[in-house]
Design a protein that fits this description.
Keywords: Membrane, Transmembrane, Transmembrane helix. The chain has about 575 residues and is α/β, with parallel strands linked by helices. Helices cover about 50% and strands about 15% of the residues. The strands form four sheets. A six-stranded parallel beta sheet has the order 5-4-3-6-7-8, sandwiched between helices. A six-stranded parallel beta sheet has the order 11-10-9-12-13-14, sandwiched between helices. The chain has a four-stranded antiparallel beta sheet with strand order 15-18-16-17.
């Protein structure tokens, strides 16, 4: 069912007419009385004979008088009675204009009028989009992080947020493309419609507000009005997540659950955790440090709310002993305030191997990190950062793992939406060995440096790789040959193939001896120059033969006509 927003132009006109109705009527009344009176006041012609001014002449005189142009007394010199009338009309007109201008200035400051103008402006920009885009509901830290990543990839998006300041900041950012931003409540389907929910080029909706009910409303509206769209939403409540799941098949991201999965991976395979974190962070992200996994032993989880309960369950699922601390939960191992030194001493940090500072108070969490470093310098410390403004403080404390819920949601959504191949690679990664993941990290550093370059997808189809089709059909093109430089085949391109998707089969970290087939999809990482060189191989005839056989083949149409074509060699039958 298409979403058709209301006519925003009509709303703007309605507000103007409603607020300016009395001033306009006042001006019209003053002008009409002035014209009528001037036509009735006795005058005289050039011969001194009594004469009255016509309605048209009176209208003409009052028009240039009201606009301060002042052509003079026409068609005849005015009598004193006419001059007195015109003088009074001038003062009345000035009063009328002052009243109208004041009302106009008040209208420009009117919230409803500004909202109507913004709706009309955004509606026009969204309607003009002619490329796929995403609709982001909620432009806090999560939305802003995702927006920067999508902008780097050249992906378009629109924004809805209830806070004026966030939309104003969006207007002042340095995005490569113009981003339509609308101030409004995302729970209103009309607001979503103006932001592009019903647009044919809308390819997905992201509900990223900090209000679970608002995210549920966005999920509901998208599922009912555009069931064909991909929906990604966030919540920390299992109850709300279950309610969201009843509307279509949205991707629900729980930052507490995702962080628990990541930390369990960090405990088992530090290199895999490092690779996952790096790839999810998006283009330009610095290589995160690789922390050593702690030895098996007891963990202390401070804060037994939603996050603490979920994380303690994850640790127990790994077969670890867990001591929980909370001031308000009788189910905690130690009931007490974590800011009390006596309570922390009862947790026996020197005998533990890990600490989770997971309260909803950043000051308490920072104090716990400092106390843990003092009591046991070898502790593996995971901390929860609640406020973005405290990022510098947590960075200075250098915890081994840091939960920033907004970043977790942003990175997870980026991995799912930037390219499906990246999400498929991350799903397959935990099944690989930690040594293998460490090797991939080293290859990425060699190809990209310590800051991740953009990942891209190659599809070996007729339209995207026409020059390779004869060799793919013959089964003669290996991955190692494809990754050679099209100018010098003895040089390998600094490209790291992460995944080859063949139908439903995913080949993770493929080797150079992999024989490529028509329709294969490749997930690659490398610098922009390497990507352009690889795309040249896909599109230019003759380069594939040079890479496979070493024979130089003319690439221009004239030289191909003048030279003898070389058929693609048939595959040799196995003995």
């Amino acid at each position: 069912m298409p979403v058709v927003p209301r006519a925003e132009g009509s709303a703007t006109v309605f507000v103007v007419l409603r607020r300016m109705r009395v001033p306009l009527i006042t001006l019209i009344t003053i002008f009409a009385i002035s014209v009528l009176g001037l036509s009735l006041v006795p005058g005289q012609d050039a011969n001194g004979q009594p004469a009255r001014m016509s309605i048209f002449d009176a209208f003409y005189v009052m028009s240039y008088t009201a606009t301060t142009i002042g052509f003079g007394e026409i068609p005849n010199a005015f009598t004193y009675a006419q001059r007195m009338w015109v003088t009074g009309a001038i003062y009345l007109t000035v009063i009328g204009w002052a009243y109208a201008i004041g009302a106009l200035l008040a209208l420009l400051q009117d919230r409803a009028f500004r909202q109507a103008l913004a709706l009309r402006h955004v509606s026009r920009k969204v309607s003009a989009l002619r490329e796929p885009f995403l609709l982001i509901a909620g432009y806090g830290q999560t939305g802003e992080t995702l927006g920067r990543s999508f902008d780097t990839l050249g992906r378009r998006f629109t924004v809805v947020d209830i806070a004026d300041a966030r939309i104003d900041a969006l207007e002042l950012n340095t995005s490569h493309a113009d981003v339509p931003g609308l101030v409004g409540d995302a729970r209103d389907p009309h607001v979503l419609g103006v932001a592009g929910l019903g647009h044919p080029y809308c390819e997905g909706v992201l509900a990223l507000t900090n209000d679970d009910e608002a995210n549920l409303a966005v999920t509901m509206a998208a599922a009912l009005l555009r069931p064909d769209l991909t929906v990604v939403t966030r919540t920390t409540s299992s109850v709300v997540a279950e309610r969201m799941g009843t509307f279509g098949a949205p991707t629900v991201i729980n930052p507490f659950d995702r962080f628990g999965d990541h930390l369990r991976l960090a405990l088992r395979a530090p290199s895999s955790y490092q690779l996952t974190t790096w790839l999810e962070s998006g283009p330009g992200a610095a290589l995160p440090p690789r922390a050593d996994a702690p030895a098996p032993g007891r963990w202390v989880v401070v804060g037994y709310g939603r996050f603490g309960r979920q994380f303690a369950a994850d640790l127990r699922a790994e077969g670890l002993e867990v001591t929980t601390v909370d001031p308000n939960d009788d189910e905690a191992t130690i009931v007490g305030d974590a800011s009390d030194p006596e309570v922390i001493r009862r947790a026996d940090l020197p005998a533990a191997v890990g600490l989770v500072a997971g309260t909803d108070n950043d000051t308490t969490n920072l104090s716990l990190i400092a106390e843990a470093r003092r009591a046991n310098p070898d502790l593996f410390i995971a901390a929860r950062q609640n406020q973005p403004t405290n990022a510098a403080l947590f960075t200075t404390m250098e915890p081994d793992a840091l939960l920033v819920p907004t970043d977790v949601v942003a990175h997870d959504a980026y991995a799912r939406l930037s390219t499906p191949l990246l999400w498929r690679f991350l799903r397959e990664l935990p099944q690989q060995t930690d040594e293998w993941a460490g090797g991939v990290v080293d290859r990425l550093v060699d190809a990209c440096g310590h800051h991740l370059e953009a990942l891209w997808k190659l599809r070996l189809t007729d339209t995207e790789a026409p020059a390779l089709q004869p060799w793919l059909a013959a089964g003669r093109l290996e991955l190692g040959s494809l990754l050679r430089s099209p100018a010098r085949r003895d040089e390998r391109l600094a490209v790291v193939p992460l995944l080859v998707l063949r139908g439903e089969e995913a080949l993770v970290g493929p080797g150079d001896d992999l024989v490529l087939a028509p329709g294969d999809q490749l997930l690659c990482a490398g610098r922009a120059g390497m990507r352009h060189a690889l795309e040249t191989t896909l599109l230019v005839d003759g380069i594939a033969e040079y890479l496979v056989t070493g024979r130089q083949v003319p690439t221009s149409w004239i030289w191909r006509r003048l030279s003898r074509p070389t058929p693609v060699p048939e595959p040799t039958a196995a003995p």
